[in-house]
Prior knowledge:
disordered C terminus
Amino acid sequence: MARFFFILLLLLAVTGCASQSELTARRLDRDNPKYKTAGCQDSLSAAEAHRDIKNVRTIASPVLLFVSGGLLLPVLAANAGLDTVDHVDAAKMAENCGAQAQTNAEIATDVALGTAVGVATSGLAGTGLTAK
């Protein structure tokens, strides 16, 4: 049980609490004329949902790993998919609100790095978790 809490603490420290959409929303120029448009405001409302999803994932991922006996691949795949949606929505938000959006290549790189960190933290925790 102590190992489970160590993994949870490690993942919380590495992943942080802010989603990409939330980070993008914080960096927007509120004086930009596009910021007040309906498209921008709709995109901003989605940032809250991504924050909530990220917070749930931060707790649920280690729990799912523990309960599943270490099935790492499905958890990583689900997290990578949710990260991709978050990054795509953040790019749309930036575009709708007058900021520079991430390119598809930048999104792919960020998601791949996040997945690699997930794999690395599993190994660093000394859990012996492997994809089955």
